[in-house]
Amino acid sequence: MSLDLAAIRAAAARIAPHVRRTPVLTDESLDAGRGAQLFFKCENLQAMGAFKARGAANAVLLLTVAQAARGVVTHSSGNHGAALARAAQRRGIPGYIVMPDNAPQTKVRNVESYGGKVVFCAPTMADREATCARIAAETGAVPIHPFDDYAVMAGQGTATLELLEDAPGLDLVLCPVGGGGLLCGTAVAAKGTRPGIRVIGVEPELGNDVFQSFRAKRRIAIATAPTIADGLRTSETGEKNFPLILANVDDVVTVSEEEIVPAMRELWERLKIVVEPSAAVPFAAIRSAKVDVRGKRVGIILTGGNVDLDKLPWLKK
Q1: Of 117, 86, 113, 108, nearest to 308 (Cα)?
Q2: What is the pLDDT of residues 8-49, one digit of tens each?
Q3: How far apart are CA 280 and CA 311, in angstroms?
Q4: From residue 246, how far is each of 37, 59, 146, 149, 178 by CA, in Å?
């Protein structure tokens, strides 16, 4: 299997009964402040609160009956875990979710609410992968990687198909990048549907493995990614993801923690919706002029809304 527009369109048909078609929001004041037309694809309103529902549903639905019977396993800081737990629950199979022990409690509860069997590990990619491999060996569960998986990428790309249908004529699409699953799906869907459109990934400075890799044209790993954008805390982009990023993405830029927080707050205030820090990363790039959007029609994927309301980053400590 590989990733192309046909695979993303097939995924869209396959997962349609299992996900929501999320709205695209606009705001005149946000447009005026940036001299552009901004179209926000609200995956924070997706089933289980994040775009990850799409990729997980596609991957689980593609399993054979024999594979599905053994269950599925993954490692996740939260949203992919909840999405896979939900997809497994809907297919009536076990879902084992390995989570770092510093994962936000709201995301742990989200996984558990869908019947996911949570197993905690140390907050390093090596520990996550080792624990995931152990559970797969013990249970026979099929590993579903959070991003280094063509079926997952195809599912994530369906959000961009919808965005381009609801906001035609876009010049540019921005999305956050952690491991690269969403960015790959977004770029392949966008380029396949509208040749000439630009696709830019936005990453936290404190988790800039994709930014470094994109410029060096080789995969570069980082030790840790201690960013507030917990959904983007990856240490290295996937083997399957990186060639697709090089082939289809126009640029990758980074934003600081100090730029993410006010972007998140402005989206809450202007759009009247709850978004998590990871979802605010692309808008942070616009606010800080890391990407020139003047005079353009810009699509922005708001990736999720699973945030701990008791620990909002602008509250006094």
Answers
A1: 108
A2: 999 999 999 999 999 999 999 999 999 999 999 999 999 989
A3: 16
A4: 27, 24, 20, 17, 15
